[in-house]
Amino acid sequence: MAQTEKKGGLLRKSSASKKPLKEKVVLMYDEIFTTEDPSKCNPRFWEELFLMKVNLEYLEGKLEALDGEELMKIKDNINCLFQHCIQALGEEHPIRVVNALQTLCALIRGVHQKNKSTSGFDIINMLVGFDKAELCMKNLMESLDSLLCAEGSESLKSLCLKLLLCLVTVTDNISQNTILEYVMINSIFEAILQILSSPLSRREHGYDAVVLLALLVNYRKYEVVNPYIVKLSIVDDEATLNGMGLVIAQALSEYNRQYKDKEEEHQSGFLSALTNMVGSMFIADADEKISVQTNEAILLALYEAVHLNRNFITVLAQSHPEMGLMTTPTSPIPTTPVTPLGTTPPSSDVISSAELPLDADVQTGNLLITFLKYSSIVMQDTKDEHRLHSGKLCLIILTCIAEDQYANAFLHDDNMNFRVNLHRMPMRHRKKAADKNLPCRPLVCAVLDLMVEFIVTHMMKEFPMDLYVRCIQIVHKLLCYQKKCRVRLHYTWRELWSALINLLKFLMSNETVLLAKHNIFTLALMVVNLFNMFITYGDTFLPTPSSYDELYYEIIRMHQNFDNLYSMVLRLSTNAGQWKEPASKVTHALVNIRAIINHFNPKIESYAAVNHISQLSEDQVLEVVRSNYDTLTLKLQDGLDQYERYSEQHKEAAFFKELVRSISINVRKNLAFNTLSQELLLKEFSTIS
């Protein structure tokens, strides 16, 4: 018997002698794409349609093939199909519901394709008709809400979320998606929270639910009162917030694991020597370079939770006992196509098997540790635009954390010590740190390590000025908390001081190139004022008196850099150019640093001459410093422990609009190719009762 093949809605025998036959569902679609009412000749047309397996490819292709004018001619049938889909969602038999959900996805996507090219084309009118829009969309949202909250099929819930993601992301700019007005009016917020609060639902649907929520929060957020923002800001249910944190932690942790696997793969191969030489983790292909983009959706969700909901701050430090140990999956994991690193959510099999461990080498983990490790990966390479955006968002999240009083309390808590293994960029002049030698320290030490690592590794031609400014601001905000609460943090402050001095040296060495693009004096002033903070208030938060002595030692040891900086800013502040004012601010800020250098250097030279020593040791210099504090005069500088609080709307609106656009495109692309296959759904509902 000849084998039957199926292609593009056609059934044909391998013998080419017979005319190809169309599937029944395709014939029914063809009837919809005429100007006649398909139920005229067949009163059971709509009932039969939703018993047929949906042919997504054919239906979408048919819609895309029509121009706007042709589509308007069959508008009544499209409206009718849309309305019957909504009616079918209330059916008892899941096969009809599955097919209705699939058809709605195809309809929304297909009709929206027309919306891109046709001016004045109204998507709502085309899909449902103005006169029935409000009622139909209300019914649709209520049906989806019921399906998401019901005890029934997990596959149906999954498809509901896919439909909602499809609906939200059909336009690149979600704020131009007029359908979302109905999603605002008929909220599904509580349904999303229910998914996140239930362990079973969270494992199956948590990723999609969190991404959906992050996108909905960003709908016209600067123009109108978005109910999802209002509701998210007041959630205080512990199970829900922990559930959301767990989903985010799993997604970031999965990314970290994939990255580590890739890193080890490259290091074990013959490319490792070359990889280290060029100072890059990967010799990456195009797919690997853009891999961070998709995880920006989860990062956006973390940002919105941290930024909007003060209760979520507690989740950052919450230990996840179910993430402590890796268990073997009870069922085999199905093979899936290889995708670029991080472009898809963690598979439900992986998540349900373990509630993924945050850190293989840490006994207990939490969301903040996983986030810091993730940040240390994406902040390594900022040359790629997606990684640059991801790195910027990481720093914005850390800025919000560094401003929060409660977050600072647990960051600096001596009773909460962790060993955080951050990723460090391979550099020729330093050895790779041994992971096992990492000490257990308060979490703020890992944040400071991350900032120092960024400062040291990004002094390059394409200078990421914006990221450096954010980095220094985070350090400053942490110091303000330490000064205010008199927290004496046992940290290797010398590493920070050295990094800051080298940054100033870099700015001076590349003055001409950098000034063509950036106002480097803003950054220089911030760095100098960090030193002023240590000089003025260091005795209140540095761990020991000797730490304060070491600060002076570093300033004196590296005095040439401060002298050169002073010469540079003095030169520019005495000229009548565009940099006069910003340069003069740095000149004034250097007053105490110059006082220290000018006070101690003669004393050190005198000590060397009296004792006939050509080069003093560190201990000898420190002895001179300790002996001569009394005669040092410093000026009191105001406002060193003050800072401007983070504000999204006034400063970051353009960044978030572009970021959400990028996420919308990416989510839509993954929905289109990976997640709307019916096979698994139909297996679950293979019998018609």
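Next protein, fold it too.
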Amino acid sequence: GEVCNMINKKYSEFLPSMQSAEELVAQVDGLSSNIDLLKAGIENEVQRDLNVAVAEFTELKQQLERDTLVLSILKKLQEFDTAIQEYSAALLEKKYVAAAQQLEKARSNLKTLESRKGFELKILKALGTELTVQTQNMLYHLGEEWQKLVVWKIPPSKESSSLESAMHSELHLHTVPSKEEEIAGPPVASVLQAFAVLGELQNKLKSFGQLLLKYILKPLISYPSLRPFTEEQADVFILCFKAEEPNLDHSSPMEVFDKIKLTLEVLHKYLLNVPLEQPAEHHEESRVTLAELLGDMIWEELSDCLIQNCLVNSIPTNSSKLEQYIEVIKSTEEFEKALKNMQFLKGDTTDLLKYARNVNSHFANKKCQDVIVAARNLMTSEIHNTVKITPDSCVNLPNLPDPGAGDHVKVQKTSKPLHNDTVNLENGTKLSQHMFSLPTCRISSSVEKLMELAYQTLLEATASTDQCCIQLFYSVRNIFQLFYDVVPTYHKENLQKLPQLAAIHHNNCMYIAHHLLTLGHQFRYRLTNILCDGAATFVDLVPGFRRLGMECFLAQMRVQKGEILERLSSARNFSNMDDEENYCAANKAIRQVLHQLKRLGKVWQDVLPVNVYCKAMGTLLNTALVEIIARIAALEDISAEDADRLYSLCRTMVEEGPQVFTPLPEEDKNKKYQEEVPVYVQKWMTFKELMIILQANLQEIVDQWADGKGPLAAEFSAAEVKSLIRALFQNTERRAAALAKIK
């Protein structure tokens, strides 16, 4: 009875299937006695009259079921109410775990009520709202407590990731238990356990973990000068930073591990060593420590940061230091063991340890990357800083590593050469190149350095483990492929505009091609054992480099030819030279061409190999002569004065043309090349013959022709000579006779 009165007092609305609250109260009052009567009734009636009984029995059974259900619902409502009351009382006394457990009890009662089909109580909605409000209220109180226990002192965000701001970040833990608390258990445990009961612990820890990474752990890894610093006062424990002068740009992994370990140890002692009862649905492992939960959340990010900012930098750059790397691997193992003892880590051999143990492969990757970066820097540096190379220039190399320096260095010192012409590698190596000697010329100093880098990397390869050796060999091939792709595009404009750079680039390509012929050969004993089919060669790259150098230089030659023809086009076709203005224009054009050639002769001097220089200058001078010859040969009328003036223009070319050949800086040595001009200028003799015609009388021309056997016939066709005679001489019988002899 009293149950109902209480319920009746508190709640105004029940079951849609009941007529009114009064009926309900009456029913519930009579409920217990009803049940007894029903039982007796069922027994008696059944005996008395079976036919009637079947119908009545069914009805009474349904009545009983309905009443039982109503009673159980009322009980649940009563339990919900009690739980909420007890929760409020516990919260007032700051008994957080008890309060949280009562809330969860109320929640499970409400779940049961909601699952009853056929009884959609309006009241359930109100109860749900009440529960939500109380849960939020509790979380708010817990949040307040947590903020008192764990206090972050962080500088304003604008300088978030600097060393400066790290120096000003502090974490204060008010979790140092005072004497009387030690018996009751520290408040931090009850706050965290209450969070766990309410299922909110993950979120709280997640944001704590993010702050921990951002303001404490990552700065410790990134800034070598930071040291963690701790102090314990009566009621608070403080974790902050001190800065020292760093001795290096990067701390060693050992130092970083120690700093992180120290930080996690104090956190473990003052905050994280709290065993928690997980909510019942996590059956597998109901007790976990806070450290374990936090470790799960931050380990991946922490270990990535340690790899990227600490282990990567510690990978050695030359094979001799690989031996010492054992220390790093050991300290990584110890670091992991310490973290496991504190329960931060569960599994074995994490990524961090795998990375450290895989040092050989990282060494090779880092080495290859350094090589490519160095190569790219050389390729994008200025072309015009040059060095002179001569046929006996060779690449200087450091001494080979000592074969006794560790088992993995297998330098084959005493291999017998296969051929007598083999270049032997001795210590203090100089590689002689007289087999294919290079002509004297200038190349970019960056290309010389690039070649040294290639040789050095191959030397390093011969002293490395097999895997590393293969990687290094291919990174040397990559250097050259990179050059082929990068240089022509990177320096494109200058190579087109500046004839000197085009010449240097041409030499650079020829120099590289020259070395590629023998490059694999010198290291073949070591490399061919590893690279299948004796693939340790660079010969396949040679034609490409020769082509690259040629194409660039030929493009420059086309530009120069274009300019020569452009200048000569202003010579008014060399016609009517008796007109002063025409003569001046022609004279100016010839002067400009000579000036252009002289300037080229200077910028290519001492740069191009002499034979290339002479061919190039010869080709360009020839271009000018061919154009002049064609123009004059096409004239229909040449007066005596025209002829004299044309002759003097041609004489300027013949006298000053050879002087543009100055392949060497020492004046006196250039004479020889100037005298050999006819060798390099294809139409030189033709031009000289044209000059003779301009000055000759008819008989002299016929003599020069000498029935098609004379010097004139060697340079001009009969038609051309006839055309010149018609232009130079009046139409007379003597001219007709002369023309008849030219055939």
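About the second fold: The mean pLDDT is 81.
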